[in-house]
Write a structure and sequence with these properties.
This protein is an alpha/beta fold. Helices cover about 50% and strands about 15% of the residues. Helix 1 packs parallel to helix 2 (about 40-50). The structure holds NADP nicotinamide-adenine-dinucleotide phosphate.
Length: about 250
């Protein structure tokens, strides 16, 4: 139990990758606060965390709202006295080619995927600096490294998140805080469920390991980065894509 009694917050923890991350952190002894737009999903994940014997909190939250994030993080800090691990996982897609992409599609994706991570880091950062320890893990995407037609908003948000990761790692390392990113490839969740079967088959053909990833594949990488085994690793992007980007 290498995370025994550590306190973690996971955004978008109500389903998919965020739920798997919450359960993986709990399996190593962490208490987990689940923050999600979907309150029912957050509560379901919290109940699953509690089944492992750990404490859980569930709060409805839109990560793109600066003040709301501050209020919810302060609530967690009041209840738990601190946060050791912050996972910025909440993310959305609003895909369209440039000429069809609305201003709203651009703004929403940047607001959730990039500003959302800033909001949480800003709210939790002061406490981590005071305690002179902490671990931030940002869930980026291989699209942030390689780009993708039809996803300029998503690629920009995830590329920005990687840049935020590296800059914040430099800024906070002297205070004992590590900041890393995980870049998943093609993972089986509700986000990828809507992709038409034919395109899905083509995408799987491009994965050397021959299958889509699972939320648990991503959670395992997060668990490693949160663990003492990664205590000399900061500012890095760990790609979890079955070799798709080789
Ligand atoms: P998902 O199944 O769509 O789950 C995302 C969760 O985040 C949902 O519970 C959603 O709530 C919540 N959420 C959305 N907007 C939010 C907001 N503004 N504030 C708080 N919570 C919000 O997605 P996923 O596939 O697990 O993806 C998780 C992360 O991994 C994302 O950052 C995604 O970009 C990244 N990723 C995924 C893949 C993949 O192939 N699946 C690949 C690379 C990277 P609602 O249900 O209310 O919308």
């Amino acid at each position: 139990m290498f995370l025994k009694d550590k306190k973690a917050a996971v955004t978008g923890g109500g389903r998919g990758i965020g739920r798997a991350i919450s359960l993986a952190l709990a399996s190593e002894g962490a208490d987990v606060a689940i923050l999600d737009l979907d309150d029912a999903g957050a509560k379901e994940t919290a109940a699953l965390v509690e089944k492992t014997g750990r404490s859980a909190l569930a709060f409805p939250l839109d990560v793109s709202r600066f003040s709301e994030v501050e209020v919810k993080v302060n609530k967690i800090l009041d209840l738990w006295g601190g946060l050791d691990i912050v996972v910025n996982n909440a993310g959305i897609t609003r895909d369209a080619l440039l000429i069809r992409m609305s201003e709203k599609d651009w703004d929403q994706v940047l607001a959730v995927n990039l500003k959302g991570a800033f909001n949480l880091c800003r709210a939790a950062g002061r406490g981590m600096m005071k305690q002179r320890s902490g671990c931030v893990i940002n869930i980026a995407s291989i699209i942030g490294l390689m780009g993708n037609a039809g996803q300029i908003n998503y690629a920009a948000s995830k590329g920005g998140l990687i840049a935020l990761t590296k800059s914040l790692a430099k800024e906070t390392a002297a205070r004992g805080i590590r900041v890393n990113a995980v870049a998943p490839g093609f993972i089986s969740t509700e986000m990828t469920e809507k992709i038409p079967e034919k395109i899905r088959e083509e995408m799987i053909k491009a994965i050397p390991l021959g299958r889509m990833g699972t939320p648990e594949d991503v959670a395992a990488a997060v668990l490693f980065l949160a663990s003492p085994a990664a205590s000399y690793i900061t500012g890095q992007v760990l790609v979890v894509d079955g070799g798709m980007r080789i």
